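Subject: for your reference before the review

Hello V.,

The reviewers asked for a structural picture of the protein, and I figured it would be easier to keep everything in one thread rather than splitting it across files. Below is the amino acid sequence we used in the manuscript, unchanged from the supplementary table.
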Amino acid sequence: MYNPKPEHKFTFGLWTVGNVGRDPFGEPTRKALSPVEIVHLLAEVGAYGVNFHDNDLIPIDATPAERDRIKWNFKQALNETGLVVPMATTNLFSDPAFKDGAFTSNDPKVRAYALHKTMHAIDLGVEMGASTYVFWGGREGTETDAGKDPLEAGKWFREGLNFLCEYVIDQGYELKFALEAKPNEPRGDIYLSTTGAMLGFISTLDHPEMVGVNPEVAHEHMAGLNFTHHVAQAWDAGKLFHIDLNDQSFGRYDQDFRFGSVNLKSAFFLVKFLEDVGYDGNRHFDAHAYRTSDYEDVKAFARGCMRTYLLLKEKHAQFSADAQIQALLAEITADDGSMDSYKGVYSGEKAQALKAHTFDRVTLGKRGQPYEQLDQLVIELLLGVR
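And here is what came back from the structure prediction:
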C-alpha cells in the first residue's frame, strides 16, 4: 500500500538525493553522483520524476561538446528508467556574480546576465520535458537596507519576469512559472519572503495567468508560519502550480529534513488538504538526507519521504471514515438554516434585514467547541490507536 506509483507524481531534484553532505562547517561526506547515476537511484526507489537546476545537469563552464554529451547521456537515462522531468529551474545564487542578487542586483550587467542565463536554462528545461519553471530568489535581498532600494529592486524583479514571460510566449513554449518564497538565508532578508507576498506580487505582472507559486514547507516554517494555510491561500487563488515537501523545526536555519520527520501533525494536515482539494500536481521532495548518511541511507531517506506521504494519505482516509471524528465535525459546523437569508451576494435589502436582526450574544458566547476532543482524536489516529 505504501509503495510509490507514477500516479502519485513523487519527484526529487538532482540536488536532493545528490547532496554530498557539505554544510557551512564541514566538507562533503559522500562522493558526488553524476546526473545519470542519480536518475538510476531515483528509479530504484520508485520516484516518478527528476527535476534540476541548469548547473546541476550541466556545469556552468562546460564546453559545447561536453554539454551535448551530458544532455545525450541524461536523455538516455530517462529513456532507460521511464523517469520524466516535470520541473526545471535556474541557479541564480551560487556563482559570485550573483552575490548581490540576480534580477534585483544593483548592477545592470548582472541583471542582464541573469536573463541571459535563465533563457538558456528555460530552453534546456523545455528540451527535457519540463512544463513548470520555478524561480527561487536565493540572493534577491539585502544584509543592509542602506545598499539597495526595495522599491527599485521590486521593479527590476517585475521587469525580469515580464521579460521572461514574453520570451516563453515568443518561443511558443507550454511553460508556466512558479515563484518560491523564503524569508532569509542565504541573504539576511530575502525579498518577497512569504507565499502571500508572492501572490500579491504576481498580480502586478503583465502575464499573471502564467505565474503561480511553489510554496515550500521549510521556508514557511523558518518564519514560524502555518504552511497549510499558505498552501490553501495559493490554491484558492488558483496559483498552486508546484509544491516543495520537506520538514523543518520552526525558527531554525533551512534544514530540509525528510518529509514528516519533525512536525508530523502539520504534515498530516498538509496531506489532508492536498487530498481533499484534489491537487493533481507534482509532489516534489526538496529535502536532503542527514550528513551522516551513506548512499544506502540516502535511498532510505528518499523512500521515507514517499512512504510517509502515502501513510498520511491513508490516515486522511481513516479521518474521513471515523464516525466519532465526523460527528464532532458535524457538531462544530452545525447550521440550523436560520442565517440562510443573509448568506451569499450583497443586496441592500439583505443588509438592512441583517442590521435589524437581534442576536443573543450571551448564548453565542456560551457555546463551546469541542476542539480539544477533536485534536486528541487526531493525535490518537496518527499514533495508530484508532
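For the response letter, the relevant points are probably these. Residues 138 and 186 are 6 Å apart (CA to CA). The beta strands are 10-13, 49-53, 87-89, 132-136, 141-142, 176-180, 189-190, 211-213, 244-245, 283-285.

Happy to draft the paragraph if you're swamped.

O.
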